[in-house]
Amino acid sequence: MKRVKLEDLREKTTKKLLSAGIDEESVNIITDILLYADLRGIHSHGVLRVEHYVNRVSSGGINLSSNFNITKRKQSIAIMDADGGFGHVAVKKAMDYAIDNSKENGLFLIGIKNNSHIGALSYYNKMAIDRQKISLIMANTDPCVIPFNGKRSFFGTNPISFGFPARRDFILGDMATSEVSLGRIFNYSNNGKSIPPNWGVDENGESTTDPNKVKALIPFGGAKGYMLQTMIEAFSGILIGNVYCNNLVKMYNDLDKMRNLSTFILVIESDIFNNIDTFLDTTQSFIDDLRNEPSLYDNIPITVPGDRKEACRIDYEKNGIAISDNVYNYLFS
Q1: Which of these, 140, 176, 164, 177, lies nearest to 267 by C-alpha position?
Q2: Which of 79, 114, 277, 333 is deepest in the core (most CB within 10 A)?
Q3: pTM (2 decimals)?
Q4: What is the pLDDT of residues 131-189, one digit of tens each?
Q5: How far apart are CA 289 and CA 190, in angstroms?
Q6: In the chain, what percentage of residues exceed pLDDT 70?
Q7: Is 90 exceeded by the pLDDT of residue 252?
Q8: What order do you get walking across the sheet with 133-139 strand by strand?
Q9: Which whole-number Å values give the CA distances from 21 to 69, 89, 211, 300, in the listed order?
Q10: CA-to-CA distance for 292 and 273, rounded, in angstroms?
């Protein structure tokens, strides 16, 4: 691993994406979201992905001319057709729209169809937090996870995330419903490291510790994680996109095809049930009380979802972002 200054990594990432023919506005959005992930140690969704995006653009699998059209369906509901464009741009525009339109009725729901990879979901939740709003995001992804008791890919990693603002801090949870994301497997492979046996299975459906032999991921939490996978697929692929699971285009296959992913975004006004001051103070009190709970381990305090990623951000901003040699060589060569 190499440590790289944030601005140096921003410059190299921007240059690579611009060289692929992506417009400057989109490049700035994509780069910002990728660096957000790397700063917080979510390297599976950081600049590791740049090479793939460049390859997919050059193969025709991402539409660089999408207008990301939004159509209002009800007073508090809209649909965006991403038209195969960059998912980062689609979700940022959709989240901006939902945030701007949530005040009138206390909430706003927007679905995105015909989308592509959207990066770390928590970036978009943080947009809502910064405007003192609550948010929930779900997205389907292409098949790479076995169903409970299965042996071959059917579900995607199907991530879910949420954000709550507070008086001083915030709650920000973001997770895949597989034991780990596929990008994390790639990250271990890039660094020549073995993986735990509960992360993935080989071509025979057997557990493996070799990241290069992983053919499918394992859902977290057994049947309970499997239920969440199903729920997220229902709220995204079935409800919004009408394309689900094994009918989706794989991320690293068929680079010339649009992926047809779907995204569910709900933004809620923080004062929908109580006034804003009561809400912010109550959320902050919850955070403080949780952090003050006694820990089983003397040197590991109780944290709130998002705390560890913020600690990582502080370290990386001061000491440089850690990236693998392979990613460094691609971006800096």
Answers
A1: 164
A2: 114
A3: 0.94
A4: 999 999 999 999 999 999 899 999 999 999 999 999 999 999 999 999 987 778 888 88
A5: 40
A6: 100
A7: no
A8: 69-74, 77-81, 107-115, 261-269, 133-139, 160-165, 170-175
A9: 21, 15, 32, 46
A10: 27
pLDDT at 182: 76
Dihedral sign for Cα 3, 41, 118, 10, please: negative
Instruction: State phi, psi for 217 to the nearest 5 degrees.
Output: -95, 170
Residues contacting 144, CB < 8 A, separation 6+: 153, 155, 156, 157, 178, 182, 216, 217, 250, 251
* pLDDT at 183 (0 to 100): 73
For residue 78, the SS3 value is strand
Which residue in the block uniquely carries the two structure tokens 């040699």?
Answer: 325
| 229 touches 177 (CB < 8 A) | yes
**pLDDT on residue 218:** 93
**pLDDT tens for residues 21-73?**
999 999 999 999 999 999 999 998 999 999 999 999 999 999 999 999 999 99
Alpha helices in 102-250 (DSSP H): 122-129, 182-190, 223-233
Catalytic-role residue among 43, 45, 88, 117: 117
The reply to whether 88 belongs to the active site is no
State how far the Cα of 102 lies from the Cα of 269, in Å rounded to an integer. 7
- The pair of three-digit structure tokens given for residue 274, joined into one six-digit string: 């109580």
Q: Which residue has the tokens 């990728």?
A: 34
